[in-house]
Amino acid sequence: MVAGERLVAADGYEVALFPLEYLVMSQDEGGDYSHSGTYNIDLLGWNSSGRVYQCPVYAPCTMKVVAYWDSYDGGHQVTFESVNKVHLPNGQLDYLTIAFGHDSNPPYTSIGSVVNQGDLCYHTGTYGNVTGDHTHTCCGQGHYQGYTQRATGNYDLTNRIHYWEAVYVNDTTIIQGYSHNWIEYTGPIPPTTEKKRFPWVLYARKLRRRYLT
């Protein structure tokens, strides 16, 4: 998605969108270290010229802060939950939970704070136990249910789902997506209509001619 983007389906519910303009994964789910046994992924900041540091991350839908950890291990991790149900790429209409980590100065940390779809909600960064600027992130379906420690000892969202099942990639340039099934939303979107303005000037002239004759 791009800054300020808002996508609403014909039924009035928002469509959950990938939270950066470029999709560049530096680490897939599973794998090593804090990703082992989890659905956590790492995303780099990117633009048309290449790598971007402290890259803006945009709200994939209108959402509120439901959890925040200000710790070295937690990496200023902020967890959001959609204010309403949203359309997900797995075909479900449900709440979206999404968490981000490593921003040195996250713009939203107070529980209950609301950010609108397409507005800045986070940045990539280097705060915490990290090597290189990125955001450590995970998605979940449904209301926030906390975190679960997996068999490997690592944590991710209890209600976790794969990232490509949680957000559509409309207006996102994919550079490194690890061949996952990233898809765009193509469902019906309400048409943009403009109300016709009543021609008051012509009407006034008509009345004026009537009274002058």
Question: What report would you give on this structure?
Answer:
The protein is mainly beta. 6% of the residues lie in helices and 30% in strands. It has one helix at 200-212, and strands spanning 22-27, 41-43, 46-47, 50-51, 56-58, 63-69, 77-82, 86-87, 93-94, 96-101, 114-115, 120-123, 135-141, 147-149, 155-157, 160-161, 173-176. Strands 1, 2, 6, 7, 10, 11, 13, 16 and 17 form a nine-stranded mixed β-sheet that branches. The protein has a two-stranded antiparallel ribbon with strand order 3-4. Strands 5-12 form a two-stranded antiparallel sheet. β3 and β4 (50-51) form a beta hairpin. The longest helix is centred in the C-terminal third of the chain and has 13 residues, at 200-212. The termini are far apart.
The helix/strand series, from N terminus to C terminus, equals EEEEEEEEEEEEEEEEEH
Over the alpha carbons, how many angstroms does the gyration radius reach?
22 Å
Q: What fraction strand?
A: 25-35%
- Poorly predicted ranges: 194-213
| Helix coverage percent | under 10%
Number of strands: 17
Largest sheet: 9 strands, mixed
Report how far apart the termini are: 61 Å
User: Number of helical runs?
Assistant: 1
Q: How would you classify the helix and strand content by structural class? A: mainly beta
- The 3D shape can be described as globular
- On the 0 to 100 scale, the average pLDDT is 90
Name the descriptors:
single chain, 213 residues, mainly beta, two-stranded antiparallel ribbon, 17 strands, 30% strand, globular, disordered C terminus
